[in-house]
Amino acid sequence: MSNQAVYNLLGIAARARKVISGEELVVKEVRNGNAKLVLLANDASKNSSKKIQDKCTYYNVEYHVIGDRYDLGHATGKEARVALAITDKGFASKLSSLLNEK
């Protein structure tokens, strides 16, 4: 299955205001326990990737590396985005199942 289904669902979640974007805001949401799933661009800097992955691991939040910053930004209707946090349990579980079946 292509990533298109993931991007389509991301767009719906973004319109429902269940997506937080931006590296610092994503780290904050993970720390506060609001992030249910984190998506990271594969072209993120090593420093950003490590910071977000370490936070997700420490706080036991599932994360996936998918697409590049332009794909993530386009899916949410914004400019390039390196990191996205999904704050809704339903969207997070559906995205997780789509990402894990590959």
UniProtKB/TrEMBL annotation:
Entry-linked InterPro entries: Ribosomal_eL30-like, Ribosomal_eL30-like_sf, Ribosomal_eL8/eL30/eS12/Gad45
Domain annotation Ribosomal protein eL8/eL30/eS12/Gadd45: ranges: 5-95
Keywords: Ribonucleoprotein, Ribosomal protein
Entry protein name: YlxQ family RNA-binding protein
Keyword Disulfide bond annotated: no
Organism: Lysinibacillus xylanilyticus
Residue stretches in coiled coil: none
Gene3D superfamilies, alphabetized: 3.30.1330.30
NCBIfam families: PRK07283.1 (NF005585), PRK07714.1 (NF005825)
Membrane-crossing segments per the record: none
Keyword check for Ribonucleoprotein: yes
Pfam families per the UniProt record, alphabetical: Ribosomal_L7Ae
